[in-house]
Amino acid sequence: MNRIRRIAETIQEKQNITLEELRKLLETEDAEGMEELFAAARKTAQSIYGNRIYIRGLIEFSNYCKNDCYYCGIRRSNENAQRYRLTKEQIVSCCREGYALGFRTFVLQSGEDLYFTDDRICEIVSEIRNRFPDCAITLSLGEKEKESYRKYFEAGADRYLLRHETADEAHYRKLHPPELSLKHRLQCLWDLKEIGYQTGCGFMVGSPGQTIETLYEDLQLIRELQPHMVGIGPFIPQHDTPFAKEKAGTLERTLRLLAIIRLMHPHVLLPATTALGTIHPMGREKGILAGANVVMPNLSPVSVRKKYELYDNKICTGDEAAECRFCLQKKIEKIGFRIDVSRGDYPE
Q1: Where residue 71 sits, what CATH number does that domain have?
Q2: Residues 160-182: what's their mean pLDDT?
């Protein structure tokens, strides 16, 4: 039996990984072994989800942000960013269009925009919940206090995505300004789980300063937290940030980590991200073949899509929502999977 296959089976059996196993999987040049790894992850996902790929409608409703993270194109000190905010009516209109296209999960994402107070967020969530009662509402609004998260949950939000970015304190400091704290970010994740959200964490693959050791800490956090979702994608530089000239993360390492996460946490909802599709024309399909089972096409108005520029060369910024939806469906069907338009909840 191929050595990589044996490691994959050990990871799946223990639902854990050692640092030595991680190093082997990330450093090996055994192409045949990697296909074994991806096949094992794919088989694990299919044993739970079949050939279904859940689809979420992403609405990027504000690119204002109070934070100044070194990797992010909408950081507050980027004076070249063209700022925008969608109104409640515009957000609901995006949901209405998405609903007609078959979406039953809406993901509301923004920078940490102080304009959107708890009351405003709750009003938006309540409106969507009342109009589309059979849909799941996911929020991705950054770090908040526990009481704020509780208010959103009571207003009707089901899920919350908060990438932790790194579980290593020294690495965190390389990515974020002094006023931000890894301790607070991790506390937010535990708060979200305690409140009852389906909770998602995640990180960029290949971010400046990342090592196999810091990735190992990320995987151990995932094992401890047992999130319902994990969002990982390659780091891609943005031209108006301090990391503009840093190297991007690679497709290969991202795919290997997707497979490892699937084997460690078999039931996890695991997106094949837009960033993956940005660095390779078949990136999202390759992500699915490595164990991912979620895609998130964009429902934002075309007029604002290019303005939500977290990183350079983001794909699908000029496509209408229907164009994104059906193009992605064809690509997924071509590799033997099918779009599932249900809410796609985490299987308890």
Answers
A1: 3.20.20.70
A2: 98
